[in-house]
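call fold(seq) -> tokens
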Amino acid sequence: MQINVDDNADGNVDEGDDVDDTNVDEGLNENEGANVDEGANVDEGDDVDDTNVDEGLNENEGDNVDEGASESDSDYLVDKDNNMDGPKVDMQDYKMNIDLSVKDFKVVDKYEFEEDVLDNEAFDSGSKSDDEGNSIRRHSLRFLRKQNVNNNTFFLGQIFGTKQEAKERIKKYAVETRRLIKIVKDDKKRVRAICQGEMPKFEVKEDGTQVLKDEGPVVEKSQNEKVNVGGRGKKTNPHQYLCPWVLLVSKDGDQESWIVKTLNTVHKCVNCRDLYACTSTFLCLQMLEQIEENPGIPVQAVREQFQRKFELNISKMKAYIAKIKAKRQVQGDYKTQYTLLRSYVEELCNTNPGSTVHIEVEPGRNPDDTTRVFKRIYVCLGGLKQGFKAIGRHMLGLDGAFMKGQYPGQVLSAVGADPNNNIYPVAYAIVEAENLSSWTWFLQCLGDDLDLGSNSHFTFISDRQKGLMAAIQKLFPLAEHRFCLKHIHENMKLSYKGKLYKDKLWKAAKCTTIVQFEEAMEELKAFNKNAHAWLSKIPPQHWTLSHFSGRAVSNMLMNNTCESFNSKIIDARDKPIISALEYIREYLMRRIVTILMVQQRTEGLLSPYAQQTLEEIKKRQPGILCSGMVMISIRAWEISGIPCRHAVATIWFMATNGRPKKARRKSAVEMEDMTKGGKLSKKYAVQTCGNCKGKGHNKRSCSKKPSEGGAKVKTAVGGDAKGKRKQHNDGGKGKAAKKSKKA
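ret:
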């Protein structure tokens, strides 16, 4: 049934309104058995139970009130212990005395009661302080909403919180039903929508059958005549080729809610594939969740998806604009996120203790402006900083990548390698450009975090970017700077193309000794002198293993660490600044968790990469042992930190056969004969004096001689001492002569 309500909600009916006489009373409409306040409109078709509405605030029949209580006394007492129930009513006798043929009178069986289920989402208080008319209207609207609780379209009495909510629902209905719905009235109090779909045109044949025409009849009009395309107003023939569907949503009195007051759900038009309501904004709202899960979905996929879902014609440009709007809502606005950058930095430092974040700004063009313009930001998370110091591999790769968003810039990164030879990001920054100033600022912040001074023997690897080379030379003059061999080959290909040049370049870079390097360069010179002259301009200490020191404990020739990191954050480079920083932080967090899981599954003392490399070296070990001079000359162990195949062969032999016996050359002292006449020589032995027990001399050369009577001989000065020593010697000889004679 079509119900028309005044658009202006002022009680006056406009000239163009179609209102039945029986639907609206002047001032007051009363149904049988119901009291309605003045100004409340109740249609003829509404069923209002007379038992649901009391008369004003009067007491119900059967309520027990203390006899001594006055009606004006609001604090009267009630005896709850002696409270009595109301009198019983014989409903069978009641039904016998009423006329059941009365129109709009509904008899409720005593067993046909609707269960009063509590609705936790309802916000109706049911207070009796409201006036009677509003209570009846609210009850009627609630009854209509319960009847249409499963209705996904529109129904009379439907309430919307705001006008925008009602308009969005109209657009969604138009797209879902593929009807040409158009909003023809949109002001502060009402929204009227009509259907402008084309009506099918038929012609009657001679046999009485109807056939669809190819073209409808042309309505001739004069130059001054205006044709009404819909909405309200006078029409020459309002029912000719016009769909009767109409919807009116207006404010509900003085309240802020909007209610459906006029609705005709009948459609006589045909479906359409080109609609007003299918805008990029509408499509944007339909794909927010999908963009959040898959931001990189192609535009063509978005277009095909909507075409299958709604069966409408959607252009590629409309799908592209819808995707851009959805990404802006999900990821945030580019300009707005710069105003929230300081709050993000504060929260990042609070949740990641030990982190370092620096923001640098510059003054705007207007000197009187109190705000500043963002220039660059540096981030070094505390956990990554401590982990890199614990690894102990003093080598970092440096590189930059372009930002693809609305505001251009560069993402600078410092990436190392962990014991498993995986990438280990340490710090990253977003700067205005890749130049000397930005690289100097980035390396200064990085040096402060890693405790690097001007005399640090650190190792960096990067491309030959001029600003970066000058910054490293300025801040860390003693550091070793390696050039990425891939970038050298890219520059070499501009003049010398072909796989042969690449192989010769790689052979020269892989040489571990200077002699091997010179031989490789002579081979390149014999092949092409110009290529040799071009490569000789690059100092060899920057790109070949033969001139590298072993401080970095790495044989890395290419900056693959930074290239791999840039490929992981490629989706972050077209996001707003906070979204980009958060994307990088989440990637680093997931990577740490993945590395911890790999460590838990690893068995043994070595990392999986080191174990695999060692097994491959064992397969290539030589069959004979090599001397230490060969291993030193090769320098592969010194540069990479992993034993070469010659060292592995030696270690493996010693582990299986034990340490070989020594066969060292004896010295000249060891070669002298220590035996004479069957007796061991006392040469090189430490003598002990039998007289004074001193070391280093014997009794004959002892300066302290005992006398005959046992007293020590006092040394005289001059000839007397010599005479006594002579007498002592002669006496000894006399005793020996006497013994010989007796024999």
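The CA atoms of residues 244 and 266 lie 6 Å apart.
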